[in-house]
């Protein structure tokens, strides 16, 4: 079910076995409401978000609830400029400057929700 399915619906039924006339119901309004984005969480590979210098780190963002197409943005240390978009952020060769607190924001166009921060440590 999508938001654009909102509208007025009616049904038609054939009346009688020999006659072929149709009866139509009174239209009924059916509103479809969006569900706000909620339950945004982060996971890391390797687990615990502790990664050796030069290794790969993959962060994944998931949403427990929310209707509509979702968009994602990644942020470190409360920075305004996103590090990336999409449900995954991959750092192929981590450096010392990649340590910090990471957060994912998810939006469906009507609402925005943020994940808890995840502390990434480069060893």
From TrEMBL:
Xref: Pfam families: Ig_3 (PF13927)
Taxonomy of the source species: Eukaryota, Metazoa, Chordata, Craniata, Vertebrata
Stated name of the protein: FCRL2 protein
Signal peptide location: none
Annotated region (Disordered), positions in chain: 75-97
Residues that span the membrane, as ranges: none
Domain of life where this protein originates: Eukaryota
Residues annotated as domain Ig-like: 36-121
Species, as recorded: Dasyornis broadbenti
InterPro entries: Ig-like_dom (IPR007110), Ig-like_dom_sf (IPR036179), Ig-like_fold (IPR013783), Ig_sub (IPR003599), Ig_sub2 (IPR003598)
